[in-house]
Amino acid sequence: MATTALKRPDERKAARRRLRGPEKAAILFLCLGEKRGSELMQKLEDRDIQRITRAMTGLGMISSEQVEEVMGEYTDAVTHGGGIVGSYAAAEAMLSKFLPATQVSEILKEAGGLARERDMWKRFGALNESVIANYLKGEHEQTAAAILSNVQPDVAARVLPLLGPEKMQDIAERMISMEAVPLHMMRQIEETLKSDIMADAAHPTATDMQQRMADLFNKLDRDAFDRISPALEERVPEAFGAIKQKMFTFEDLVKLEAQDLARVMRGVDGNVLPLSLRGASKDVRDHFLSVLPARSRDMLLDEMSSMGPVRGRDVRVAQAAMVDFAKELAEDEEIRLPLDDDDDELIE
Which segments constitute the Flagellar motor switch protein FliG N-terminal domain (predicted)? Predict the structure, then answer.
């Protein structure tokens, strides 16, 4: 549990960036320098080289604090060097030490292309399931199967039932027996989806707008939200009710599985956790504390009691930071947010 002293805003922002495995490997190679990094990279398989290269080209500025975390036992060796910068040029320089120019160009081209493809599929998967289903209803079953095979399983699971029993069965069967889709066909599908995604973004559905408003209200100051809520409930009761169902607030964190909530609590920085709990209700605070080991719980209680009076605005900022972090973890599929629980079937 990270309950260290309060950090400056710029340090908190840098520390909050969470790194994945390939990014950590890229940091290690950058710290080794071109010569030693190149020698080590030669020992890797092509697939690993490509993954690390993709991470390195998009790494950007990494603070010395994060370098220390990644390097661990080598902290003393890297802290004096400060931060590092991962970029297209850094990846190109390192690869050029041991690969011919043509192969370097191919790897870097593929790294950039794959990054754009991942972004496209992520954007498509983020569309409302009804939008995706309506789009797939106009496509051949084999094309629909190829598309659903490239989105996250939870997205495909929500979309399939909306296609109707016959089409759902046909597409599921094709997905099971599907072999590799020819590259030229996949490229054509991706290009078509790109244009359709832009069209959908320009003409958002009512459901999309509700989600956007839910995201806006999640960020809105609680006092401001409380002031406008009565009027919205009176004037647009149905739409406002749907928006509230899509909102995810600090209090909703108690709906997380115990291990997921503990993951969120361990990952936030500085005094975000104790400050958040100082402004929480007793029931919410007790639930948070219940998922911690006894020693961590005692340390957190001591930190909360030593904080003295806290400002309500600071509490709301801290609670919003915890919600944002939980959403980041959910996007990376490290935890699952209990959204749309009203749709869950109750089994007795």
Answer: 19-113
